Structures
1.
Amino acid sequence: MSADTILVNARVHTLAPEHPHCDTIAIGGGRILDIGDTGLLAAHRDGSTEIVDLGGATVTPGLVDGHMHPIQGAETTMGIDFGGITDFATFTERLRAEAECLGPGEWVRGWNLDYALFAGRRISADSIEDAVHGLPCFLLFFDGHTALASHAALRLAGIHGGREFTDSSEIVLDSIGHPTGELREHTAYALVADTAPALSAKRLRKRVREILYRIAGTGLTGATVMNGDPATFDLLDELEHSGSGLPVRLMCGLGHQPGSDADTVRANIAARDRHGERWRGGLIKLFLDGVIDTGTAWLYEPDTQGMGGSSFWPDPGRYAETVRTYAEAGFQVATHAIGDRAIGAAIDAYLGAGVRAASGAPHRIEHLECLAEHDLHRLAAAGITASMQPLHMQWRAPDGSDSWTSRLDPRRAALAWRTGDVLRSGAPLALGSDWPVAQYDARIGLAWARLRREPGHPDAHVFEPAQRLSAYEALCGFTTGATRAQGDTDLGSIRPGNRADLTVWAQDPLAVSADELVHLPIHSTWIGGTRIYRAEN
Ligand SMILES: [Zn+2]
């Protein structure tokens, strides 16, 4: 059969054990026709075949981020990016500079706040009131689990005291019952976020498209999107049918909260099979706990401040029922479970509902930041996917003074991001970024998975060295691991019949050091045999 495109003069890591290397790839009808050497030219070339000389560049299966929020991120990354700022004076200076540019009634927005900013100080509206000049202000912490609102923002949102939520969300109050400005978990902070002016549909579309193109430019060809609703699917449809389509393949989850009603279930089930050319649904995303940093992760034993005893669901039994409802309706289920007890409860629920979705893919657990030994073995025995983000260790301090480590005793902190143990146990592993929580650039994610320390700083502290992954294992986490987690059997490796999603690197990502990898140029990305991104020059 004649090829549409033949890539020649490449160093190819197929990640297919039966044929691990080749130098030529023939592509036709969006799929890989054949792999081998230049002999393929004689077999598959005709007058219309495009021959692309890659000049010795390295080809791997397309990188896929196993967990990110590119669409929600278009909204939550509005305003000042506080990434890397841990000094309170610099933080308030930035706020002041922003507030001075705004008129009355305009909102100060910011994201990517580090908990370290508030070490030894309360997360409070009072602490920013002077800097924001009394303007409404909404700031989101890097993990998307905590927000800080100014007094004016609280007033505009009608928040004057506490409130009961259908999940573990909380309006934090001071000793006399006034809101401090700290809002824990989405249902609480959405009250303020939804009061702030929203992007118009047109601007949202534009921002999402820009973000997806930036993502493609870092070598990604796909991602699992961990939140959405049927309106998100409408947006993806619009993006796909305008301009040049989606620059990354997306599997997009639908959300269900503890307070969601039967209408949500009906709407989600009705949207289950919606898809476009490069996106599809079929996934439900649930939360079973929050984050360790604020005491909202669900732990077998309380954290060092006596917290961690409750799940995101007031009745965890309802979570298990919800898993069953969606599994029976044909969905794959992904559950956010960070604390050891949340992970154990997610495994229980999956075992109860049947660990495989109708698609054949196992259900999946997201994050697994503190994984108990007995649950590691249960995870592996059941074949449940562990979807992890080792680059989230960038917020840990070597001396254990950070909010994550200090909330756990040393015994449990040693069970952090057990990527090496997960692989050794035989459980499937997918890697990702959770952007906008951390950088979407998979080269950074790969480097953290390999190094477990800050890339580019060889002297930096290495967290749990035994959990480091080899270059090959890390690459598998962002390719075969992430695509299998989605239930895709024809992606993630370069073999005849598979869809031709490829990442082309200036040099071999398996041969360069992890410190160099973060600067390794991406030559091009390809989806279904179409070149999506190409580096200039
Ligand atoms: Zn996430």
2.
Amino acid sequence: MADVKITKREVDYSRWYGDVIAAAELADYAPVKGCMIIRPNGYAIWEKMQRALDGMFKETGHENAYFPLLIPESFLHKEAEHVEGFAPEVATVTHAGGGKLEEPLFIRPTSETIIWHAYRNWIQSYRDLPLLINQWANVVRWEMRTRLFLRTTEFLWQEGHTAHATYDEAEQETLTILEVYKRFAEDFMAVPVIAGLKSESEKFAGADHTYTIEAMMQDGKALQSGTTHHLAQNFAKAFDVKFQDEKGQLEYVYATSWGVSTRLVGAVIMAHGDDKGIIIPPKLATVQLAIVPIFRNDEQKALVLEYVSRLTADLDGIGFKVDDREQYSPGRKFNDWEKRGVPLRMEVGPKDLEKGQVVLARRDTGEKSFVSQDGLRETITGMLDAIQTGLFDRALEFRKAHSHKIDDYARFNEILDGEGGFLWSHWCGSAGCEERIKNDTKATIRCIPTGEEKEAGKCIACGEGSEARVVFGRAY
Ligand SMILES: [Zn+2]
């Protein structure tokens, strides 16, 4: 393990974030600015995320497919808003095979265009609908200001692209996936999120409207953690994808797209980590239990390891690792597993063997307890569940403590410059006020929450009438 001293969060949150990643060996910067090398400890978290999400997508009727990385330049130009939104960050291949290409090729920043090109051949009749497809892939969006996992030029993600016969069916799809994302964030990542609609200026380029889930990080900033887009008939019209409905009429197809990315690994780090490093929620930890045998001589070693192997024989379903490295002291090993964010540590020494017990140490609270070898598997499972719930509750408490209903513009600024957080304020709905607030305070409308009680009031910027509060915050 790298010997990295972790800066305290209150000293410099941004340095802390970088130190945590280095200490846990999650990722490195690459030779090309903005690119990221995901190391095994980081990739293991992503793999767990993929498995859980993939299962949820399949349960809701989706299938995986794969579309090419390279997209003809002309494709992106077919949907006007889409190209305008993505042009500044698209990378282009102009030369290949020793010569200049006739038509430059875009490296996908997202795959709507190439997928809708294919859907034109796949969809003829209402019988071909709905088409529910997901792709696991990498995309490239050129970034000037990069940060590992949160903002990188190349990142890994999944992108769902679905086709429907009606506007309402497409709407239902965006809401179904929004719910899947919310459930994943809260049940697996232990990160509470607010689901809602994006404002016009924050929606996806080419969408009719966009839904989002927004999480709060420990510095009070928001992290957009997943989005679902209702694309209406925009891409069907751009790529001329029509279907014959039940009455024999030709109609353009309705579309959705949706995605989450490796940015979620950053969310886990920033929502749960402490001054000792990352804390991985048990459901996303490959190693859920690190077992450190303690012994002073060969005789003790043999006895303790024998005891450990007896105990571990009964740990079905728990991801554990026995740390029998000879060259490190137990103290050093404890420190390593803490930095790696493993949720639970088991310590076993000669005295424990005599008493038929082990020591369990929780990563989230630091709490240590002696527990009997009898029913050990159930004890550990119970403790992992408690850690999973505990992390969620702690993050929810933090969000509550850093959420404020604000009706005074001066106070609005004051909070953002101070402790930060989510500000629930009234907004009249005008793009002008939204922009003014952004210019004045660097805060954006994170979302117009769905499923919250509506309450009339006056716009925080202009004083005009507003139907409900929206969530403002500074964001990553
Ligand atoms: Zn206003």
